[in-house]
Specification:
Elements: H1 6-14, H2 19-35, E1 60-63, E2 78-81, E3 96-102, H3 114-122, E4 125-134, H4 146-162, H5 177-183, H6 205-226
Parallel strand pairs: 1-2, 3-4
Helix pairs in contact: 1-6, 2-6, 4-6
């Protein structure tokens, strides 16, 4: 059976029933949004409808697990468990003005492809709706210290080998998302790259601590998946 992210989810559940993963995701969120001025939603919609602060300030949020949602939910907010690997309910089709997805593409592999995910999300949009995807571009940054680029290389190996034996088994897989969006019928597709800063590169001490914590905390979980892959994909050092 091809490797998939189930091993990742199993490990996080064993670690205090997802408590440590909850902290990692919260730290990751703060690290990412700090890199682009906390403007989560960048499409031109009415600011009175969506404030731009992911999940807690958006009227409806789809989650990969109910372990990661506050109970009870904040007033005016609805959380819905939904597998990214499966079609969405028919009653949701063409009902959303904005769909925002961040850092979950890898969870669909190898059962579903990035193209399937994009098409699945596009079906949710109203005719004038907007789809915003946020994923990792796994290209090493020249000014990065060696360990940081090794971390990027680890993610690149993970994404590529989740689709081993298919046309999607290639480096920097997520760079093709704009093309997948256009192929799904979207117009005015735009792409922007944002450098997410970690550690000493971050001036804010609070974000600096969170960025280091989320980067370090994720490594054992990703390695759990990599170790299920063939021996030439990873090596013990």
């Amino acid at each position: 059976m091809p490797a998939n992210m189930t091993a990742f989810m199993d490990k996080t559940k064993k670690d205090a029933n997802n408590a440590t993963e909850q902290v990692r995701l919260e730290d990751q969120h703060e690290t990412v949004v700090a890199s682009y001025g906390r403007e989560i939603v960048v499409c031109p919609i009415c600011p009175n409808r969506v404030s731009g602060f992911w999940a807690l300030h958006v009227p409806m949020a789809l989650t990969s697990s109910n372990h990661y949602t506050p109970k009870p939910p904040p007033k005016g907010t609805h959380f819905q468990d939904q597998s990214i690997k499966e079609p969405f309910p028919s009653e949701w089709q063409e009902t959303f003005e904005v769909v925002h997805q961040r850092l979950v593409m890898a969870a669909a592999a190898p059962k579903q492809t990035p193209g399937f995910i994009v098409q699945n999300l596009v079906k949710l949009l109203k005719p004038v709706g907007w789809l915003q995807l946020v994923e990792v571009i796994t290209t090493p940054v020249p000014e990065n210290p060696i360990p940081r680029n090794q971390h990027i290389d680890m993610l690149d190996s993970l994404y590529k080998n989740l689709y081993s034996g298919t046309k999607y088994a290639k480096s920097n897989l997520m760079a093709d998302l704009p093309w997948e969006m256009e192929k799904s019928g979207l117009r005015n597709v735009q792409q922007a790259e944002v450098l997410v800063k970690y550690g000493a590169a971050t001036e804010n001490l609070w974000i600096r601590e969170k960025s280091l914590r989320t980067a370090v905390a994720g490594v054992p979980n990703f390695l759990t998946v990599l170790k299920e892959m063939p021996g030439d994909v990873w090596k013990q050092e």
